Amino acid sequence: MISISSCFNRPVRRVIFFSVLFLFLALGTPSIAAEADRLVWIGAESQAEVSITSGTEEELNPEPGRLIAEGTRINSGDTVSLIRIEPQNTLLVLSPSTEIQILSLAGNRLESRTRISLQKGKLRITGTTQKEQPIILRTPRAVFRIHSADAGVQVLPDSEDGGAVRSGRVEMLNMETGERITLPPGTGATTGADIFQPQPLEDSELTAFFRDIPLPEKEIRENAVTEGPIGPANGQDTKIGKPETGQTEKKQLDWFDLSISGGGALITSSLYGSFSFGLTFTAEPFKAELLFPVRFSQRPFIPELWHRPKGNNEWSFGSDQTDPGAAVADAFIDLGLKVHRISWGRPGDLIYGHIGQLEGINLEPGLIVRNYRNTLDTPSIRRIGALGELNLDLIKVKLFTGDLTEPEVFAGRIAIAPVKDILPLAMGITLASDIDPAGDLDDERENSCGDPALLSGGLDLVLSLMDAPELSLSFYTAAGAQSVFLRDEVAGSGYSAGFNTDVLFFDNRLRSFGFSAGTFGTAGIFDWRLGYEMSKGIFKPGLFSPGYERLKTDYIANSLVPYLQNPGNKRYDRWEAGVLGEAGFSFFEDRFRIGLAYRFPFGIGEAGFRESDEDFAELEMTLKDTGEQTPAGSVFLRRRYFLSTILEEEAQLRSGTTIETNLFDSNTMIGSRIMIPAGQSFSFTLSAGTNVSIDDLDNPEPMVSLETTWTF
Fold first, then answer.
1. Where does residue 164 rank: exposed (0-12), middle (13-18), buried (19+ CB within 10 A)?
2. What is the pLDDT of residues 14-72, one digit of tens each?
């Protein structure tokens, strides 16, 4: 008789054990939560005008004191309607012609938020909450997190959604753009505005906005509420800009979130359990997310068995170093590895900064830096990058480094549009460098190649003929060059330490350069890029691309060193060319996007066109986080030598030789992270990717991790 357990080997059983363990921990914790929210119908100016429908489409009588369950729909008709949320004593005021649906109640099952959908009309929420959880209000184009406040939200048909705040604090997510802002007292914002930022409102504007959602008469309020005040103290409107009594303390607590996650991870053939704490601090425009992970093997309370990214004990903070300088450096690295994301502002703001994982970094038009990512080796190797932007009207600056804990890759671009109003032409300068591309090689191999530093530079022109949200068209052209700085002499060549001009110029001919030209733009849900690239020598278009850290040792060994040892080889005078095509499709109001890219390569020589295998194919799918309980995440796949590998296997199949599948090797990059909610405070996260052993680049090991996450 075969037992079920025999179908799974020991590592797989451990993954299942860790995942189930953390699942029970997460599911069990909400049972000690505070008392569940209750929605109580108070009344309306005309009860006959109101329509209340249960989740089973049953018509309910609008009787004062009726409890309102999840799934209930309410249409206020031509009257003002009132609902109370207990036990925090928050009042909902529905203007005439307003329709809402109760999506969830805090404390019911695994829900930690009360969520309401405003489908049309205008709604006012006023009150002081006794719990730190905000009320989530969703409209067709926005999501509002309403803390202790007096705020109004409206839906305008086929146009825009907006909100205004008298007191307290409201966070607003624009689902059309993905932008998030915080509305302080005396401000408002709409999704369709040219600039999505809080706008100051005069007293007269606030009065007009709240006119059709008035607070009830004093007698009704006293009869309806018995457990504390609703709205500003003493029933009076608080002056704009001044917080209510006790509001400051609650506002500070609302900046802070804690998350707990756990599960199992398979990293380069070794099984690890995982457990981590996450801390999030938000004070617009600043946001910081810290992650404190522990990945343990066999015994969770023995630090010696915890996973060490690139051999580093990230919990030592320098205590395992004897040299003072090394101890300080190690402490800096260990602290940096606890940063998941720190940001200031948003992309496109006047000043934008980001520290953490970098994905999809482009320095237009992409001849040198294209779609750079530092996340494809996570969690085996975690990199903490940094990105900064300065966006002025005529000058734009973009800088980044791939890893602050081990800084090697640096790049930046300055774009100037001196006559933007007359001619929409931007001129750009791009510089990029890797100061230690051979650092992952052993000492002997690193020294034999001269311990180089890569230096890249380029000039570009971008002409924008149309620049509208739904229709844009730009043309570009760019030229770039590649050189090196050698710290040591290269064995078997005439190159000594230092900067050697022969890398760029050999026999009075320009070497190691390239150029590109093409077009990109958008048309409704479709976006594209089509470009032509040519290069000579060691210049590689888009060298700083996805998986660069993994493939740069291959570039050093198979491109740079052979060139330095024999620069007179005629193959370095040949043109390498390619046609790059990208296409993207966005659906469901840009919440879901699928992107495809392929570079078709070929060579140009004395005999005309020739074959080349320097191609790649990319697939990327992204599902944006809407702020609601919906799945979110991304999947990224990139394959180098895509077509040549397939053709080689087909040739082997026709000849009858043994086929060794090699599509899944170091030239394949996979990165994905999918979050599936299972309640307001509980979600499953699945991460999958490929990883490469530094000692054996031709035989990468698969990496799969499964986590369960609970956030409160």
1. buried
2. 444 444 444 444 444 433 334 677 888 888 877 778 888 887 777 888 778 888 888 88
Q: Strand 135-138 and strand 114-127: pairing?
A: parallel
Query: CA angle at residue 114 from 111 to 119, to 5 degrees?
Result: 125
Q: Label each residue of 581-611 as H, E or C.
A: EEEEEEECCCCEEEEEEEEEEEEEECCEEEC
Please classify residue 137 by burial: count the beta carbons closer than 10 Å to its beta carbon, then call 0-12 exposed, 13-18 middle and 19+ buried: buried
CB 269 within 8 A of CB 692: no
Exposed/middle/buried for residue 214 (C-beta within 10 Å: 0-12, 13-18, 19+) = exposed
Burial of 49 (0-12, 13-18, 19+ CB in 10 A): middle
- Which tens digit of pLDDT belongs to each residue from 421-470? 788 999 999 999 999 998 777 666 666 788 889 999 999 999 999 887 67
Using one digit for the tens of pLDDT, what is the confidence trace for 517-558? 999 999 988 999 999 999 998 899 999 999 898 888 888 888
Contact 163, 193 (CB under 8 A): no
Secondary structure of 334-396 as H, E, C letters: HHHCCEEEEEECCCCCCEEEEEECCCCECCCCCCCECCECCCCCCCCCCCCEEEEEEECCCEE
Query: Which residue, 559, 534, 429, is CA-closest to 484?
Result: 559
pTM: 0.67
258-289 burial: b if 16+ Cβ within 10 Å, else e: ebbbbbbbbbeeebbbbbbebebebebbebbb
